[in-house]
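Supplementary Text 2. Reproducibility record for the structural model of the 185-residue chain.

All settings were left at their defaults, and a single model was retained for analysis rather than an ensemble. We include the record here because the model underlies the residue-level annotations in Supplementary Table 4.
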Amino acid sequence: MLLKRHTHVTLQVLRDAVCELNAAVRAQGDFFRNNDLQGMASTLAGLLIRSRVAYVAHMGDSRVYHWRDDRMTCLTADHSLAALLVREGAIAPSVAATHPGRYRLTRYIGLHHDVYPDMCEVRIAPGDRFMICSDGVWNVLRDDQMAAYLAQTTDPQEMCAGIVGAAKRLRSRDNITCVAVLIGE
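Retained model, structure tokens:
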């Protein structure tokens, strides 16, 4: 019972933080109505670790990956038109990679007053690794390539430097952002 209550409270705290962030972004966009910041928005991929549980909040097409025992899993589902069409069975996953709706986001920070982030939780174990990255990374690197960087070192800065460097070498046309988190004993 305590874990369930603890989980509910943590998810609510995370949800509240996303709502506050959304309100702040919208307020800035409204304040700067007559310049480039008008209508500003952002994707969100957040990770909160508490009591051996990782909580994920997500909106947009930035992703959170979990690596354990030489296996990497994506914990988020993109909020793009192409991804929605794949989930509905209207197009095949292979078509989504080049679909015109690939960059058209259906949910993100700053879009509406009310936000509904996807949220999940994962029990963590010593040695687990998490990676948060923007589409400038996962658009050019395959999952096995990203997993190789997560596996090769225990230094999060080295992991990110390798991933960012690889995305730059592959001439990613989007912003390249990467954060790695390693779970110790």
